[in-house]
Write a structure and sequence with these properties.
This protein is an alpha+beta fold. It has a single domain, classed as SH3 type barrels. The chain is built from 2 helices and 9 strands, in the order ββαβββββαββ. Strands 1, 2, 3, 4, 5, 6 and 7 form a 7-stranded antiparallel β-sheet that branches.
Length: 129
């Protein structure tokens, strides 16, 4: 079941084909969190910023990993691989949404991304240090 890619939304988890993986990049078909700004998604930008997920769980690894509990169509508990943030061509998004993360979890994602990128959250925006 493939959904219309025009319906992608910030904070949703979709399945993406990340093959072929190179080096430390996660490959195969796996869930990804759409992190791209909604305005770019609505403008049908040809690529999308995502964070891949893995079911190879590691506890206490924040900010590099954040746990997402299985719910909706996400069948297994998973870790967001925050340090693997990347842009992918929209054609790699193959099915979704599996789940939409709530505001509390997305707030933790923003904080973790800011830490990994060496930026701080101030007034809802990320700034470099």
């Amino acid at each position: 079941m493939t959904s219309n890619l025009l319906m992608r939304n910030h904070g949703e988890i979709w399945l993406a084909n990340l093959n072929p993986g190179r080096g430390t990049e996660p490959g195969k078909i796996r869930p990804v969190l759409i992190l791209q700004n909604q305005a770019l998604l609505d403008a049908d930008h040809p690529s999308t910023l995502v964070i891949p997920l893995t079911t190879n769980l590691i506890s206490d690894a924040e900010p590099l990993r954040l746990r997402v509990v299985a719910q909706g169509r996400l069948d297994k508990d998973s870790d967001l691989l925050v340090d693997q943030l990347r842009a992918i061509d929209n054609k790699r998004l193959i099915e979704g949404p599996l789940l939409r993360l709530d505001d509390e979890v997305m707030g933790r994602v923003y904080q973790a991304v800011g830490e990994v990128l060496g930026m701080e959250l101030a007034g809802g925006f990320l700034f470099t240090r």
